[in-house]
Amino acid sequence: MLKAVQILCCSSGLTRLTKTRNSSTVKLSTFSSSSSSSPRKTLCFNPTRMSSSSLPGSDPVPKSPTFVSGDVRKIKFCQWCGGPTKHEIPDGEEKLRAICTRCGKIAYQNPKMVKKVLQVVGCLVEHEGKVLLCKRNIQPSHGLWTLPAGYLEVGESAAEGAMRETWEEAGASVEVVSPFAQLDIPLIGQTYVIFLAKLKNLDFAPGPESLECCLFALDEIPFDSLAFSSIYVTLNLYLEDLRKGEVKFHYGTINKRPGSSPSDIQAFSLDYHLQP
């Protein structure tokens, strides 16, 4: 995957994924950097992600059969406590989920990159020298700041998932510019894929999973109040790139220090850090 993303960043030039708030059409345009006369390839598809009545913070989960998750009714018992499940649509969502009747946890069906690894996708949204952060309204890390990100759904690409999460958590319509970082976290079986993105307009507002959404100047990013190590690493890599005058793609493995608290987001080492 790293090789493919590096090729995307270094060889193919800029890949741009766009959508509009009142349009069901998404266009993926690739610009070749090798020749100014090279043709532009545009892929159009209709995920029916949003309607004209969509409001900031509403869940724009698509209705297209292409994006239908697996049959959640097959999930009869909770994977955490073993309790029986009920099948309902949780508040703030539009998809049927399996919910434990004992501990209340929701079983989300996510595509697995490899066995027991969940992919988290999100956007580092830039606007006039500022970045968009959301204050979490859910656990874990309730009340702390994060980039808009979440689990990839079955049937969507990483870029689509990152755009969807940005809409759900910040009500923000964005244009994906390029992949920025892939961060593996073996301890919890997760891989983060973060894209650089641009705001299409300033019409954003917190969704059900966010208390606030704000644009922070780079010297005002609340590093002492970030939710996760992955977000701490991503933002530091971004600031380091800006200081060097060139934003690159990063790959790394985040390993927690032995004996550290899960809430200590700075107790880690960034291993196998690679960049073009």
Automatic annotation (TrEMBL):
Keywords per UniProt: Hydrolase, Magnesium
Residue stretches making up the Nudix hydrolase domain: 116-239
Keyword Hydrolase among UniProt keywords: yes
Stated name of the protein: Nudix hydrolase domain-containing protein
Pfam family, one: Zn_ribbon_Nudix
Coiled coil segments of this chain: none
Signal sequence region: none
Protein family: Belongs to the Nudix hydrolase family.
Cofactor(s) this protein cannot do without: Mg(2+)
Keyword match Phosphoprotein: no
InterPro entries named among the record's database cross-references: Nudix_hydrolase (IPR020476), NUDIX_hydrolase-like_dom_sf (IPR015797), NUDIX_hydrolase_CS (IPR020084), NUDIX_hydrolase_dom (IPR000086), Nudix_N (IPR029401)
